[in-house]
Amino acid sequence: MPPCPDERGGTRRTGVHQAGTLAGRVGSCAHGGRTGGVARFSDGCRPWSVAGGPVSITGFTSPWWFLLLLGVVALLAGYLIVLRLRRRYVMRFANLGLLERVAPKRQGWARHVPTGLFLVALVGLTVALAGPTAQHKVPRNRATVMLAIDVSLSMDSTDVAPTRLQAAQAAGKAFIDGLSPGVNLGVVAFAGTATVLVSPTADRAAPKAAIDNLKLAERTATGEAIFTCLQAIDTVAAVLPGGGAPPPARIVLLSDGAQTVPEFTDDPRGSFTAAAEAKKKSVPVSTISFGTRYGTVNIDGTRAPVPVDEPSMRQIATIASGDFYTASSVSDLKTIYSTLAEQIGYQTVSGDASRGWLILGTLLALVSAGSALVLTQRLP
What are phi and psi of 224, to 5 degrees? Predict the structure, then answer.
């Protein structure tokens, strides 16, 4: 029985193994909660900030500087002791009425503001010395992505306006625009066979032109599409200068129907076999099941049903440690592609976050000095 469409009308994502890290080598901040089937950023990746830098309270590189807080506590205790001693000294005057006439008017709690701000400033500067760190998103300087698009006859269905193929073309070009410049993108079209239309390249014009010129053909060889993508990825890794570990890579596979070539998915060139090979090479395969269960196409004057094949697409993603998505509209598909572009094009690194605390501490110290001059005509 074909899978039921998402009753909420939005993008639906299953709980398969998340591949936002490209099998451990391609990281992303988008490990957090998922809403409406799209990975969202977790709050832990976004420290609150002041103008000039994030204000993080995690990942301290020199925590021993927090010993200076003992000095701040000592200053606070000394201040309270001085206030108490001053009060005792004042109470020694026998004529309190005379004292009230000659002593300046007390300012109440406001006179403690400069000292309080000064102590808080010291706390902020101490945190800065302790070396807090925060996670920052930075564009990748090299990564390989293969976009495999199904061009079988079922992609001519109009259940996604204007047709599945035209919708996939529009969303695919938006996906290309969203990739960071350091990502090398290749395009594979597949029906009965798979063809590399564009080898991985940093040029964005060639992949867009290839997507614009996609043509429909008979049958669906999903396994061949994955094997062809893997071969293109291996070729790029082999010609890159410098040697060392190959760049992180991912395959994004969009299809609407079940594999028809070969007969079984676990055949040597079948889709499940190809997914296992991708897993072996640490290349996640994220799959997008595109269309609805109500799709039909006109074949020789007869309307033939072409429902999406969600189970096999989900299984491919599971085997290859990728993400599985479903999309039943152009907006769904663009949202999925936007999420993938964010995951693929950027990585999360830990960096220094002391600047925000330095700014905060300095500003508080200046406010403390200014308020002291206004309220007490002296510095704290």
Answer: -60, -35
